[in-house]
Design brief:
By secondary structure, the protein is mostly helical. The chain contains nine helices and six strands, in the order H-H-H-E-H-E-E-E-H-E-H-H-E-H-H. About 0% of the residues have low confidence.
Length: about 325
């Protein structure tokens, strides 16, 4: 066991630590574990030929060309077009190195020295305001290794912070028990408008996502994009139906009703993050597998679609507990 653990650590130390997932794993350390278990060592586009050669020497395997649907990834970083940013925080939630600064409804910006160029922030952005720009590559392999080690420290620090946040939110949830339902007066127009606001935002974002996908379909016309457009169209229609139904209910409801327990803000935030990550993983897999996935890839896509749908349903149940 110690020998296997040491081998995984040695392999992980040679990977670029972008945590991009282009190898088919959720990060560099899981890919290192896969290589140690016998998986091919030539699936890392950010590492390129240099990393493949180093892994070949370490593992005493033949040097192979890159085997990936993605080309070798150059040194790059993300740049947010600040004039187009709506402050949704979705990019912040998925950045593996905490390289994005911002807050809800405020402009976001990328810290150049912290960005690994992983591209994970591109898919969740609802307004497509993030670009990738080339940056100078490290002057030699030692400099490249130092940069990778820095990215790994940033990633580990983020994981520790997320764990602390989860523990704190769970402790708060334990202390704050939801009171039983009590009779309350009928909703005022102000509270009705507040309840409709999330539905309006969801419908608008669904339309934006559909329009972006339709533009990509018109440009590239692949079967995968066609399927994605169909899914987004159905999602946009469902969001609009939910909004229309809520608006009709707000217009006709006048009698007092029983209040429902307040939604736990911590649980709602976790559900939103889970739904965003599930959509991002599905989008990344669809891009990676292309228009003709293998049976194994099709099964993985089906599992990711199911997970994304479940996450969306959980989020909807928390955001709109009174919906039929």
């Amino acid at each position: 066991m110690n020998a296997q653990t040491n081998l995984i650590s040695a392999i992980d130390a040679l990977l670029p630590q972008t945590q991009c997932g282009k190898c088919g794993h959720p990060g560099c350390q899981p890919y290192a574990a896969g290589i140690a278990a016998g998986e091919a060592h030539n699936k890392c586009p950010p590492g390129g030929t240099a990393t493949i050669l180093e892994l070949s020497a370490l593992l005493q395997r033949p040097a192979l060309p890159l085997d990936s649907p993605y080309p070798i990834t150059p040194s790059q970083r993300a740049v947010i077009r600040e004039a187009d940013c709506i402050g949704c925080t979705k990019c912040i939630q998925v950045c593996p190195t905490d390289a994005i600064l911002g807050a809800a409804k405020l402009m976001h910006t990328v810290i150049e020295s912290e960005c690994s160029g992983c591209e994970l922030c591109l898919a969740p952005c609802p307004v497509d305001c993030i670009d990738l720009v080339a940056v100078p590559a490290p002057v030699d392999r030692p400099a490249e290794r130092r940069r990778a080690q820095y990215y790994r420290r940033r990633f580990d620090a983020r994981q520790a912070r997320l764990q602390r946040d989860r523990e704190r939110l769970e402790a708060e949830r334990q202390r704050r028990q939801v009171p039983p339902a009590v009779s309350t007066p009928a909703e005022t127009p102000a509270t009705a408008d507040a309840a409709l606001k999330p539905l309006k935002i969801a419908a608008a974002m669904a339309r934006v996502a559909l329009q972006k996908a339709e533009r990509q379909l018109a440009q590239y016309g692949t079967p995968a994009l066609e399927a994605q457009v169909q899914q987004l169209r159905e999602a946009a229609e469902q969001a609009q139906v939910a909004l229309d139904s809520a608006q009709r209910g707000a217009a006709t409801a006048r009698a007092p009703a029983l209040a429902t327990p307040a939604t736990d803000p911590a649980a709602l935030k976790q559900a939103r993050i889970a739904a965003t990550l599930a959509r991002a993983q599905l989008t990344k897999a669809e891009r990676a597998f292309g228009s003709a996935p293998t049976p194994e890839q099709s099964a993985q896509l089906a599992a990711l679609r199911g997970a994304a749908q479940q996450a969306a349903h959980r989020l909807a149940a928390l955001e709109y507990p009174n919906s039929p």
